[in-house]
TrEMBL record:
Record organism: Cytobacillus purgationiresistens
Domain of life assignment: Bacteria
Compositionally biased region (Acidic residues): 129-140
Taxonomic placement: Bacteria, Bacillati, Bacillota, Bacilli, Bacillales
Residue ranges the record marks as coiled coil: none
All copies of domain HTH merR-type, residue ranges: 6-75
TM annotation in the entry: none
One Pfam family named in its UniProt record: MerR_1
GO molecular function: DNA binding
Entry keyword set: DNA-binding, Repressor, Transcription, Transcription regulation
Protein name: DNA-binding transcriptional MerR regulator
Amino acid sequence: MMAEQTFTIKQTAEQTGISEDTIRYYEKIALLPRADRKDNGHRIYRQEDINTIWLLSCLKKTGMPLEEMRPFLAIPADADPGEYPELVEHIRSHREKIVSQIASLQQVVDFIDMKLEGERYYHYRDCSDESQDGVSEDMTGEPNPKPVSPLEMSYFSVSAKTGKSPASLR
């Protein structure tokens, strides 16, 4: 039988793009399980650990706070999202915030592009209708979230979209 491949903390950091210090910190706050150790006390990691670090890295890039990541770590990678409707809703809401931030940043990029092309200030769209988080507001000052398109909804499984359990879809 072939032995499971293991990696040093240095190899793990190189593979994931996450610093050794950050990996140790994730262990310290229990986002990662405590690493097994060699006889000499050095940490060893398995592919499963590397996959978890990649997930943490991806969620972190979205701006998700570390504490909000914990529930996602408890779900098996092959689980049906429909079995976790509260997490699907959480990630859907988080995604909507990111889409709004992207739209807001695109306005800034468009403005910069216009400036680089030598257009005058009065030719740009007024950004004052955007709140700080990029969600547009109506005349009452209430947030006006953008509707989720069918393409955006395709990121979720059928059962997650309907909010029904996988068994009830059969």
